[in-house]
Structure prediction request, 902 residues.
Amino acid sequence: MEPLDSLASIYPESRFSRDAAFQAAFESDGLTVFRAKPRAVVIPESAEEVIQTIRWCHEHAVPFVARGSGTSLSGGSLPVADGIVIALNRLNRILKIDPVERIAVVEPGVVNQHVSDAAASEGLYYAPDPSSQSICTIGGNLAFNSGGAHCLKYGMTSNHVIGCKAVLATGEVVTMGGESLETVGPDFTGLFVGSEGLFGVAIEITLRLLPKPEQFHTVLVGYDSLQAAGDAVSAVIDSGLLPGALEIMDALSIEAAEAAVACGYPPGAAAVLIVELEGPREKIEQERQQLDEILTSTEPFAQRVAVDEADRLFIWKGRKSAFSAVGRLSPDFLVQDGVVPRSRLGEALVRIQQLSAEANIRVANVFHAGDGNLHPLIMFDGSQPGALHRAEELAAKLSRLCIEMGGSITGEHGVGMEKRDFLPEMFDEPTIRMMHRIREAMDPKVIANPGKMFPGKEAPALSKVGLHPLEKAGVISRE
Amino acid sequence: MLHEIKPEQHPPLGQEMADAISTCVHCGFCLAACPTYKELGQEADSPRGRIVLMKEVLEGNLELESALPHIDPCLGCLACEPACPSGVPYRDLISPFRAQSESKRQRSLSQRLTRWMTQFTLPYPKRFRLAAKTGKLAKPLSFLLPRSMRVMLDLLPPRLPKQQDWKENYPAIGNQRARVALLTGCAQSVLDPDINTATIEVLNRNGVEVVVPKNQGCCGALSWHVGNLPQARQFASQNVHAFPEDVDAIVTNAAGCGSGMHEYHLILKGTADEAKAESFRHRVQDVASFLMQLGDLKTPPDLGRTRRIAYHDACHLANAQGVRAEPRNLLRMIPGVELREINDAHLCCGSAGTYNIDQPEIAASLGKQKASNVIATAAEVVATGNIGCMTQLSNHLTKQESGIQVQHTMQVLRDAYLASETE
Prediction:
């Protein structure tokens, strides 16, 4: 019997596929420059099926990638060529909402937004809000320690996952953390969160829920220059205010968002800043006056306060659709995710503009200004010879810029396939060795999402110059 | 998304299809909006997955037969379009793709028979009326028929309304403010001819003269949306010649027809009527949208009682034509109307042209969910703007033993105008 047949025997026919259509549909995620065809796709409907699948992979040393909605912007859920894709979409049950303990226990395929929807009647919500929250799944959020606009105040996914049951790449089922914020020993849950699927697959995740803020105060501010918007961010933070979110979009991304959702941002703005205060009514009443004064001192040319919840969501809609909306301005683009110290934001923006001008490549900027997380969107037309290569060169320069400035190559999208070359530039050798040892403790056969995060021998380093060795070998292909 | 499609190899709409694919950035936002993704829960049955599959087929990297099991369940509801931040015109891809794959695909005998039956009867009111009457007689024998044909029989109403014919001209009542031509539709004119009568009445009362062109035919949407390009072309061509130039708008009252007529430029591309189609489609407008644009409408009398009305968005009105607020505003104009929103309003009811017949399981599941959500509004009436949705809603509301009445927005409005004269 072919080994794959024994994997197939775990599933009914409709949920195991080595069909060409499935291989094509699953060949990439939110980063389409990388594509790889899996050997088979399985669609488990129970944790038990996930466990059996991983045990099978371990036994036969076949690599696997777990995948939720495939929205990764770093190629994190790109299939391993000839490996297994475990599509977790149907593990989408919310197992428990406990309004007293303020926790939710969910399966990995639950959509981020659905957690908040389910908790809404209890006056609770799940705080991390990636722009793709309407479709991205908690499993993927956990694997990549996803952020979102409101992570400035509330922290990233890792601050909201308090426990998890996972199948390690060895097939062992382990429990980390629990329903309490207090844990014994090191923060193993924290170690698992953001491990990019290299340790195994979470099958049951315990999330912290927060009471919905009583009041929001959302202001949309237009500036004549990107620098002025950046300075305004510093002014707000320096005043001691901690808004729920502080977001900046530049002219190009405003143009894109406007085309996509007609979000009514101030016409002619070189940059807009979205500031959102949230909390108890009395506190917000006080803080909004303070914010008004600060914003007035930054000399904006336009300012608008959301009049009601619908208006507030409308302002956010522009911001949240910005990435994909750039598809209207350019046939292809690369989303970057670097971080710089917030105090050097203005400087970083100027450098990005210079690098963009030098390379003669348009770059739109959308960023979580409050925590210095930049999202330059490098636009190119992939049908032009060499265009992707030039865009990747610019991306490399932007990543190095962030490292030089004392920041990070990734804020919330993860290293994935895209930025793995830069990991050794951020960490010294002993640190990288430690990471490898930890990984091997969880996955001795290196079968869980191999090829991601580390430039390693299991999949040769991604070259920014010329063809990737796997491409030369015809194993993966880039469009 | 990058592709290696050679548009010239896929005439006449290769360029349109390639452009739609280029616009997709594979972000996955469409997954949240897609009813079939919700039902089937797998990437290949999502808009994003289907775009990749169609791309692969057009590039020659995937066999058509491998892609079809995932392309066929697409409702064509276009819920993915408003959900798409990049603005992928999915309609420019799905219908042309279906049209060009039709000649290359294998269909079973029963599939071919069902397709032939629907396409030979539905678009022709006389044949449809006859078939519907025959079908009714055949109901007791339905267990002998293939599944898809049984579904067809199930959809037939217990009795057909009396046949109605319309005059060529209905003058405005009072001061004439506009002049429009009305598409009377095919299946609708048999299943519920009163919708046209109500539409004419509402327009007339608001100072609009209505002409009903004699030589008009089916709009062609049914044929176009299932990939029968030759038949769609024949109907579209007939209509671009049948409708007069000297009207303010070509008014439709069936969402599917309106959306199909907005796509005449695609249907007629590469034919002698190409240029005519381009100007024609811009003159097509749904009656609700036309009325709101006309403005200064007559307010129906206040009868001093409240009426709870739920409004159901027909996909081909809301998604395909962007008409959402207009019908709601028309209903709100009626004194005493309490408008109720339906949960999961963005989900298709499963009617979608002949989808009921082609994909009965998904259609039934969606219909059931929609009916439950309508019932949860505790409305007395559910109003909508498409005959297909009306049939599906009635069918599933009846199955759940609900007494909620299904009406076209124009029927609700007409009844409100007439109420003053009868009471």
